[in-house]
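Our preliminary data section would be incomplete without showing what the modeling component actually yields. Below, a chain of 307 amino acids is followed by its predicted structure, encoded as tokens that our downstream tools consume directly.
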Amino acid sequence: MAVESLISVVLALVLAPLFLGVINRVKAIFAGRTGQPLLQTYYDLAKLLRKGAVYSRTTTWVFRAGPTVALAATLAALVVMPLGGTPALVSFPGDLVLFAYLLGLGRFFTVVAALDTGSSFEGMGASREVQFAAVAEPALLLGLAALAVRTHSLSLSGIFAGPAGSVTLQAWIQMGPIVLLVGGAFLIVFLAENARIPVDDPNTHLELTMIHEVMVLDHSGPDFAFIQYGGALKHWVLGALVVGCLLPVHPASALWAPAVSVAEMLTLAVVVGIIESVMARLRLVSVPHLLAGALTLSVVALVLVIY
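Predicted structure:
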């Protein structure tokens, strides 16, 4: 299993930017446009890596460390996340708590790097990010808790790739309502954490509506490439939670697991592209209501599991 797990991680590292390309292509098709190339994110990353970084004299080491630490935290989260029905590359009881904390660590350094600039504009985006995360993180943790209680495992691999996570008709009938509730909560968390519509618009530059983009405006060159690539990896990592609940297809042969993982993630990318094409961005005052809905779904799933 270690070989298949390593292959899945390598595929995630290589194909994560393609996830964003598929989303943009689906949105272009719905809008009747040709759209940018599927590999546009790769071109952008290569261009940014060839440039130099510019730093303000008012910033400290915190600003420079932000993109690197955020990317490292996302890479670590990828290593403990099972992909395509195969166990994670690193797995142990309680790794689901580490997974949530790693995502929180990446957010923390992105926020403090924005605050380190001394810009009230970036401070506004950081404030919004923390406000919405205060509701999104409990939804994620309680959803994982519901799955942990149902599968009797404190490991993500035990939940999504172990015997308890194997998909059979009887298991789906027994766990169907729970995984649907948790999967719905994870989908909302996925959209919120990755600054997607209806929570945020990754393509907008309107000052009063930006959340994530406004926090990284002062980053440039390789630092901005780290942020962009880390964002693509975060799509893949959190997407694995969604497909683990809503598309839990485990191939009979472990050799097919990496290919299944890629197919599931690209399917999710198409779904996200459709969502962003058929609905508009919510008003900022309505975003907490959406995240509260995700929290409610996780709480109901946990109550059903316990009682």
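The chain has one domain: 2-306. Confidence is low (pLDDT under 50) at residues 163-169. Preliminary results of this kind motivate Aim 1 of the renewal.
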